[in-house]
Amino acid sequence: MLATRKLPVRVSEKKKSRSSGDHLLPQLADFREAAFVSVKNGELVKLGRVVYVGKDVTPEMMLDRFCKVCPISLTRSEALRRLEVYTEALHKCKVGNLLSVTYTAEGLPVLKVELEHFIQQPVLNLP
After folding, report:
1. E strand or H helix at 66, and its extent?
2. Residue 48 CA: distances (Å) to CA of 11, 36, 55, 127
3. Cβ distance 41 to 25 under 8 Å?
4. For a surface tag, which of 18, 26, 37, 64 has the fewest beta carbons within 10 Å of its beta carbon?
5. Contact 101, 34 (CB under 8 A)
């Protein structure tokens, strides 16, 4: 079964901090605007930072959560297919990366890394 332990969260533009629990999913109905959808309130969000959520999240779980905030006009199987593509794309992203999303003509999400997060090497000459 396909699952991920990483999801993007909303990044505050003013504070440059992330909003915990405000996970972002791709749009499933109207993908004319290149943006994520917040599962807290259904708002469109341009950028998200990848975080580790600590448990497996499947496309079925994503769809159930998405349906609570936004109605979808797709069949369940088509929505799951789009979320599976999204899950596979998340596997290629690293925790801390800043992402944006675009959509193909078929409505499949394509993730783009806007900014990579590099962990600096520790200083080895400490006293």
Report:
1. helix 59-69
2. 6, 8, 19, 39
3. no
4. 64
5. yes
The encoded tokens of residue 15 equal: 């504070």
Residue type at 31? F
Q: How far apart are CA 111 and CA 36, in angstroms?
A: 10
pLDDT score of 21 more than 70: no
* H-run or E-run covering 81: helix 76-91
Bridge partners of residue 45, in order along the sequence: 36
Which of 73, 79, 69 is CA-nearest to residue 45?
Answer: 69
Domain ranges in the chain? 4-115
49 and 9 Cβ atoms separated by less than 8 Å? yes
